Amino acid sequence: MKYTKTTIFISLFVLASPLIALAQWTGPTVTPPGSNASTPLNVSATAQSKVGGLLLNTGNATNGLIVQYGNVGVGVVLPAHKLDVSGDVGATAFYYTSDARLKKNIETLSSSDSLKNILALSPVSFNWKSDGTASIGLIAQDVEKVFPTLVSTDATGMKSVEYGNIVAPLISAIQEQQKEIDALKAEVESLKNENAK
């Protein structure tokens, strides 16, 4: 039987394909602890890339997935936060840790300062460069000038705003405005009483 160079090449490629696939897979370097999933689950410190979906069936376990160290990215290759998502996040509620037992140096915000600071913010409408989606919000650099503690800057210099915590100065500003409204109401009532005499 006569073999051409092409036939030999194709035969070698077909035989070598499984070896190439195996070479791309780095198996776990540590045996999983008792009752844990068996290989090929990676339990080493070596990062691995998997293609395909991942479904976790917790089997009624209290905790479904725990990421003890490092950051998690969804649509983000180099996450800068504990959870970094590129895109929309849907949920029925978001809870901020806020227990008094976790805080110290607690002081009431100054109502007049809060009102002044809220009035200094510039709400804007804009389009995201990534996909052109229209949105409204604030510019992080502008917020940083007024509320520096509400702005975070990652390693690349990209800034983000902790929008949820703007609620506190908003409440304080409304309280200040209510005091002014109540004072004006009292003044109007006093003028009415004087004119009624």
Description:
It is a single chain. This protein is α+β, with helices and mostly antiparallel strands. The protein has a domain at 108-196. Helix content is 34%, strand content 10%. It has helices at residues 5-24, 111-120, 140-146, 167-196, and strands at 72-74, 83-85, 124-127, 134-137, 151-153, 159-161. The strands form three sheets. It has a two-stranded parallel ribbon with strand order 1-2. Strands 3-4 form a two-stranded antiparallel sheet. The protein has a two-stranded antiparallel sheet with strand order 5-6. A hairpin with a 6-residue loop joins strand 3 (124-127) and strand 4. The longest helix has 30 residues, at 167-196.
**Helix coverage percent:** 25-40%
Give the radius of gyration: 30 Å
The sequence of SSEs as H and E is HEEHEEHEEH
Main β-sheet, spatial strand arrangement: 1-2
Report the oligomer.
Answer: single chain
Task: Give the DSSP E fraction (strand runs of 2 or more residues).
Answer: 5-15%
Overall geometry comes to: elongated
The number of helical elements comes to: 4
Brief summary of the model shown:
With about 200 residues, the protein is of the alpha+beta class.
Entry keywords:
6 strands, two-stranded antiparallel sheet, 4 helices, two-stranded parallel sheet, elongated
SSE topology sketch:
Blueprint: H1 5-24, E1 72-74, E2 83-85, H2 111-120, E3 124-127, E4 134-137, H3 140-146, E5 151-153, E6 159-161, H4 167-196
Parallel strand pairs: 1-2
Antiparallel strand pairs: 3-4, 5-6
